[in-house]
Specification:
alpha/beta, 25% strand, 5 helices
C-alpha cells in the first residue's frame, strides 16, 4: 500500500474505536510513558495536544506534566509546513484550531524554544517497530524533528503497529513507541 492508502486505512480504524477504549488505552499509555527514565529526566517536554478522532489522548500526560511543574511546549500548525512552538502553563491555554486540532492560544502562550525540550512526544497514524512513523502527510513533524536530536517517543495503540512502512529519506523516526501493552525501544 502507498503512504496515502495506509494513512486513510489507519485513520479510519483509529476513528472507529469506541471512546471508552480510547480512554482506557490512553491511560495505560500515559502510565507507561510517565514511568520511563526518559520522561522522569525531562524537565522540559514537547507534546502535542490530542484532539483527532481516536488519537491517543494526551490530556492526562499534559495535566501531569503541568502539575509536576515541568516546562511544557506545545506546537501550533503554521502555513508552509512549519510548527510554531508555545509554552503552556495551564490547559485552558489550549484552543480549537484548524484541521480539528487543539493548539496553544498565541495570545496567552509565549513563544518557546523547541530546542529546550529534553523529550518530544510525537503523534502518528501508524508506526513500525524500527521507529518508522506515518504522520498526517504534511511533513510538519519531519521538518521539526530533523533539527532536534533528543529522545522522540511515539504514542500508539497496538493496532497502529505494522511490520514495515514505506518511508523517504526525509522521514524522521522515533526512538521509542509506547502502546497500551508495552514500550518498544526502536534504535
Amino acid at each position: 500500500m502507498s503512504k496515502a492508502e495506509l494513512r486513510r486505512e489507519f485513520r479510519r480504524r483509529r476513528a472507529a474505536l469506541p471512546s471508552e477504549l480510547v480512554d482506557g488505552w490512553s491511560a495505560s499509555i500515559t502510565a507507561r510513558l510517565t514511568g520511563l527514565a526518559e520522561f522522569l529526566a525531562a524537565e522540559t517536554l514537547h507534546c502535542y495536544p490530542s484532539s483527532l478522532p481516536g488519537e491517543v489522548r494526551t490530556d492526562q500526560l499534559i495535566a501531569r506534566s503541568l502539575s509536576e511543574r515541568r516546562c511544557l511546549i506545545c506546537p501550533r500548525v503554521r502555513p508552509h509546513g512549519q510548527l510554531d512552538h508555545r509554552e503552556i502553563t495551564d490547559v485552558s491555554q489550549l484552543i480549537a484550531a484548524a484541521f480539528g486540532l487543539r493548539e496553544p492560544d498565541p495570545e496567552r502562550s509565549p513563544p518557546a524554544d523547541p530546542g529546550a525540550a529534553q523529550l518530544i512526544v510525537v503523534p502518528g497514524v501508524a508506526f513500525a517497530e524500527d521507529g518508522t512513523r506515518l504522520g498526517m502527510g504534511g511533513g510538519y513533524y519531519d521538518r521539526f524533528l530533523a533539527g532536534h536530536p533528543v529522545p522522540r517517543v511515539g504514542l500508539a495503540y497496538e493496532m497502529q503497529l505494522i511490520d514495515s512502512l514505506p518511508h523517504s529519506k526525509h522521514d524522521q523516526p522515533v526512538d521509542l513507541i509506547v502502546t497500551e501493552l508495552r514500550v518498544i525501544r526502536c534504535r
